[in-house]
């Protein structure tokens, strides 16, 4: 993750503690809060002539990242275990699945991995679905996260401290016109995950 400093981590400790109090005794239906953060797609490279340099151009690097995002991520075995490490591994996988949904508009796996009423999760899914349903697309959309492994699990779920590094970008319509610009951001978020029917699910994101 880029540039998460010690000061932000210290400040996040208080945020995580507050959210943990809200979701203590969670039954798989934590409150998402009144607002939900949006992810930030990566901007499209501009049209240019092929570079004569043997070094990969920024456009080629962006294309490679996009191609990687088009591959649906597999759930790692560790992410199926009801352990603190399993919860963190699941959270990392979920954000990779979000990257996949952003790059393709395919939200089936994303939706299957969260429970109601995760409003933030729903917003992420709807944003991708609406962009692609009308023939448009989201260029890029890479989100990198660092998830702190909790010291122990809580009854009904666990609150994870997630440090998000989202790139800037834009959403385009079917004609290729930019309909939304998004700025890069780094932020700390609280992600509640619950173990339901022998699998982890996202219960809420603050």
Q: How does the overall form come out from the CA principal axes?
A: elongated
The CATH architecture classification is: Roll
Strand order of the largest sheet: 2-3-6-7
Uncertain regions spanning at least 5 consecutive residues: 1-54, 56-65
Compressed to H and E, one letter per element, the order equals HHHHHEEEEEEE
Task: Note down, in words, how this protein is organized.
The structure is a single chain. By secondary structure, this protein is α+β, with helices and mostly antiparallel strands. It has a single domain, classed as Nuclear Transport Factor 2, Chain: A (Roll), CATH 3.10.450. It contains 5 helices and 7 strands. A hairpin with a 5-residue loop joins strand 4 and strand 5. Helix 3 packs parallel to helix 5.
Quick summary:
With 206 residues, the protein is α+β, with helices and mostly antiparallel strands. It has one domain: Nuclear Transport Factor 2, Chain: A (Roll).
Highlighted features:
single chain; 206 residues; alpha+beta; Nuclear Transport Factor 2, Chain: A; 4-stranded antiparallel β-sheet; 3-stranded antiparallel β-sheet; 5 helices; disordered N terminus
Question: What is the secondary structure topology, with strand pairs?
Answer:
Blueprint: H1 6-23, H2 58-69, H3 84-104, H4 108-112, H5 119-133, E1 137-139, E2 143-147, E3 158-166, E4 169-172, E5 178-182, E6 185-196, E7 199-205
Antiparallel strand pairs: 1-4, 2-3, 3-6, 4-5, 6-7
Helix pairs in contact: 3-5
